[in-house]
Amino acid sequence: MISDEEIRKFYELQGMYGDHVKQMYASGDLFTRYWQNMRRIIVERLIEELEVDSLLDVGCAEGLYTVFLACKRVYSVGIDISLPKLIRAKKRYGRWNVLFIQADAENLPFSDNLFDLVLLIDVLRLLRNPERALKEAFRVSRKYVIVQSGTPLRTLRNFGRVMPRDYSSIKRDFRTDPFGGAFWLFSSLGLIRLIRASTPNVRILRVIGIPSILTALPFNIVGYLRKSVTAVKIAMIIDHLVMERRVLNLMGSFTTILAEKEG
User: Fold this and answer.
1) Which of 45, 123, 149, 207 has the fewest CB within 10 Å, making it most exposed?
2) Are 23 and 88 in contact (CB under 8 A)?
3) Ranges of each domain in the chain
4) Taking the model in full, what pTM does it have?
5) Residue 163: CB partners within 8 Å, gap ≥ 6?
């Protein structure tokens, strides 16, 4: 089993390899850029709907979500295990009401009920213990938690289950693809169950999934579609029509969940 120190060093190296935000949201073919930015827009729209005065972004990388509400004088904190990413975040988004801290998602250095909103955006599948990170997120949250995670099409055959991450392969994976590697695999339903299992008093308010079968699958099968403006526009229309419909929202390649802490 890989040690905590080896995991920390892994993410330090990963952070040195390049800008996470640029690689995720501004690179790749047309469909990849649409797909990644759709994830971002979903989160930003959810945040805008909530009345919050403080925000914690867990696994913030270069701080894209951390600073989203900074212009509205909302106090925001971003934490990440990777120091190089935090240095870039501070240089890019340094403001009086934004703070970046090196910390562990599974052991948050904050008191209970401190933040109105806690974000876990595409971070759970990278952690040693996702359930512990969820417990910590709800502990420090006063009101809301937004969780977004990859829920690949292949997880549908294990509907409702969570498949653990294989840390034994992380070093080998890093040598070939520093931004890939072995992940925890969640189905949408498995992610919902994990959230409910982590905290007794939680209410699921919204489940939004970008449907794999209707959009991602055709683009992966027919490669030239990924560069077609018309095809991407059609995918956009389909996604907006079905992403919150029952059953279909549980078939998303990425699932976003808004949960409320009760009591």
Assistant:
1) 45
2) no
3) 4-261
4) 0.81
5) 155, 184, 185, 186
Q: pLDDT tens, 168-222?
A: 555 555 444 544 555 566 778 888 888 998 888 899 999 988 765 556 656 565 6
Q: Residue 89: which residues within 8 A CB-CB, separation 6 or more? A: 60, 61, 62, 63, 66, 78, 80, 100
C-alpha span between 191 and 160 (Å, rounded): 8
Give the whole-angstrom CA distance, residue 90 versus residue 63: 8
Judged on CB neighbours under 10 Å (0-12, 13-18, 19+), 44 is middle
Phi and psi of 5, rounded to 5°?
Answer: -65, -40
- Domain 4-261 architecture: 3-Layer(aba) Sandwich (3.40)
Query: Mapping DSSP to helix (H, G, I), strand (E, B) and coil, where does residue 213 land?
Result: helix
Q: Where do we find the tokens 């501004």?
A: 26
